[in-house]
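#struct-pred
JK: can someone run the complex with guanosine-5'-monophosphate? inputs below
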Amino acid sequence: MSDSVEGYDSDNIFAKILRGEIPCDRVYEDDHVLAFRDINPQAPVHVLVIPKGPYRSIVDLAEQGSDVEIAAWVRAQAHLARELGVADSGFRILSNCGVDGHQEVAHLHMHLFGGCDLGRMIEPAG
Ligand code: 5GP
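RT: done, structure tokens with the ligand placed:
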């Protein structure tokens, strides 16, 4: 795991959750990954799956994370889809990155949505 990633702000809210300074409704944890329910759920199932390392986006993780961390993060998402009962009915995973992606929390997270018809992925750009 990378100790420091340039530009990572360790005061972001998910870093505080990882340090135990803020509580979360945890649904999964292993050595490299933490997953918890979104505080403002947009679907019956809405969890956030984060690597424990200091990565802002998937670009940081891919460029600076280890293969073990990357595999653990991906496997946790699939594991949770199964555990939360949406693997067969369908679900969506989505990661907002950076300014154009409207990323609010600058620690890499994958949203996992499910439990209802999620509609179209995105409105066509105007
Ligand atoms: P983003 O736009 O960065 O992809 O989304 C960040 C998500 O984090 C939002 O869906 C928001 O509801 C969620 N969130 C923000 N603060 C907290 C918090 O303190 N706890 C939890 N569980 N979720 C949070």
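RT: quick notes.
The chain has one domain: 13-114.
Residues 13, 22, 24, 36, 38-40, 48, 96, 102-105 surround guanosine-5'-monophosphate (CB under 6 Å).
JK: thanks, will look after standup
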